[in-house]
């Protein structure tokens, strides 16, 4: 007898019934199970959405403004902030 074999003589009819495989039960794939657990964790979802927003804004950010990241206006070095740059 192997390590995981069950001696059927020791089992009652109810116990044998519990050990049989339920073929009507649906199984869930590993991907679906992981996705469901991920969606049920609100902090993980919030972190993912925040990260995606940062990535999207970093990709389209330069097209939203008339200034580039490397542009300098040397004449306005000592001037306070103004609405011209918003």
From TrEMBL:
Residues 32-81 form the Oligopeptide transport permease C-like N-terminal domain. The chain crosses the membrane at residues 38-60. Keywords: Membrane, Transmembrane, Transmembrane helix. One of its GO terms (cellular component) is plasma membrane. The keyword Ion transport does not apply. This is ABC transporter permease. It comes from Bacillus cereus.
